[in-house]
């Protein structure tokens, strides 16, 4: 009996100690600028009007000891040599801040701004003052966590230029616009009535826009249509001549609103909820950098995009993926 009581007491103490031991919930949100506006504030991270503009972010779990190392690094930096480059509040044309670290460990929360390249090794404080890192201590601290180091070492500006810039090296797949069909019917250049006979709109409205030039008013009346198609809801936008211009196909997010045992509308062999491995087979050129897009170039919806062009400058199809699955499709038509 005495041994049993002792055993129960030891178990109780063990449980009590495990409960009292604080869980390490430390993490870092690492953000990097990969595209800069021609004009704008030097700190893109803190301005709502530029929020998310050309910024790639990643949340990375880490140890409390690493957070402490960054805390000590920031405190130490104030003793480094202050240099002339700075980023003051709302300063246009000043030194652009390239990187942000948000540090969180239990109740501790702080932010570090820094630039680190072949030209600059700086920590920038909240007031915009810059301090020179002569001993490469920023990079040494970053390198203590492999995931943080890999995110920093990735040449995301080069990836962005290769994929999205006007001089991009990515060669997009191109197809004839007539290959895009719904219910086996060509969609390109269809008017409202023709498309309604193919798709059966749930609703059709006319949006009137007003333009003023030299005190003269002009009005445009453009049709907009909507329908459900299997498990997606779809918007159709027409130009002022009533010809189809844009189609948006989106997944119905609420699973209770989805139809049971039914598929999705298929666009050039791809449909909502397809794994992104499928587009790699169908359009290998356009999807060459899809893994980089997933890692670095998500939009505000947490989506990354693959573009396929129509030949003869007739438009394009954008496939938007989320967590590896096709989440949204946008078709844009161009007419001479």
Layout of secondary structure:
Blueprint: H1 2-20, E1 27-33, E2 55-61, H2 64-77, E3 82-83, E4 99-105, E5 108-116, E6 121-124, E7 130-132, H3 137-142, H4 146-153, H5 156-164, E8 174-175, E9 181-182, E10 185-186, H6 192-199, E11 203-213, E12 216-229, E13 232-238, E14 244-251, E15 266-267, E16 270-271, H7 277-282, H8 290-296, E17 304-310, E18 315-322, E19 325-333
Parallel strand pairs: 8-17
Antiparallel strand pairs: 1-2, 1-4, 3-7, 4-5, 5-6, 6-7, 9-10, 11-12, 12-13, 13-14, 14-19, 15-16, 17-18, 18-19
Q: Hey, roughly how much beta strand do the residues contain? A: 25-35%
| Helix/strand class | alpha+beta
Q: First CA to last CA: what distance?
A: 93 Å
Domain unit count:
2
How would you describe this structure to a colleague?
The protein has 2 domains: 23-154; 174-333. It is built from 8 helices and 19 strands. It has helices spanning 2-20, 64-77, 137-142, 146-153, 156-164, 192-199, 277-282, 290-296, and strands at residues 27-33, 55-61, 82-83, 99-105, 108-116, 121-124, 130-132, 174-175, 181-182, 185-186, 203-213, 216-229, 232-238, 244-251, 266-267, 270-271, 304-310, 315-322, 325-333. The chain is elongated.
């Amino acid at each position: 009996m005495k041994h049993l009581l002792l055993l129960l007491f030891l178990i109780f103490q063990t449980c009590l100690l495990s409960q009292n031991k604080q869980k390490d919930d430390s993490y870092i949100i690492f953000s990097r600028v990969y595209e800069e506006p021609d004009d704008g504030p030097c700190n893109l991270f803190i301005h709502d009007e530029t929020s998310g503009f050309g910024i790639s972010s990643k949340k990375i779990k880490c140890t409390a000891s690493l957070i402490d190392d960054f805390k000590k690094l920031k405190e130490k930096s104030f003793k480094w040599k202050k240099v002339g480059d700075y980023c003051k509040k709302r300063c246009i044309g000043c030194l652009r801040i390239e990187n942000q670290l948000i540090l969180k460990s239990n109740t501790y929360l702080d932010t570090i701004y820094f630039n680190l390249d072949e030209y600059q090794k700086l920590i920038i404080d909240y007031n915009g003052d810059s301090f020179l890192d002569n001993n490469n201590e920023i990079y040494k601290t970053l390198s203590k966590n492999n995931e943080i180091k890999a995110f920093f070492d990735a040449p995301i500006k080069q990836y962005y230029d290769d994929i999205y810039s006007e001089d991009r090296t990515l060669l997009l797949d191109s197809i004839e616009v007539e290959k895009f069909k719904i219910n086996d019917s060509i969609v390109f250049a269809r008017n409202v009535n023709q498309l309604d006979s193919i798709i059966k709109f749930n609703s059709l409205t006319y949006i009137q826009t007003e333009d003023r030039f030299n005190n003269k008013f002009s009005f445009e009346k453009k049709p907009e249509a909507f329908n459900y198609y299997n498990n997606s809801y779809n918007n159709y936008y027409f130009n002022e001549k009533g010809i189809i211009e844009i189609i948006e196909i989106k997944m119905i997010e609420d699973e209770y609103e989805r139809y049971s045992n039914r598929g999705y509308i298929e666009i050039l062999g791809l449909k909502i909820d397809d794994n992104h491995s499928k587009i790699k087979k169908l359009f290998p050129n356009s999807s060459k950098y899809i893994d980089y897009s997933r890692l670095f170039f998500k939009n505000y919806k947490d989506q990354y995009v693959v573009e396929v062009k129509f030949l003869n400058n007739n438009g394009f199809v954008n496939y938007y993926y989320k967590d590896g699955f096709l989440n949204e499709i946008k078709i844009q038509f161009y007419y001479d």
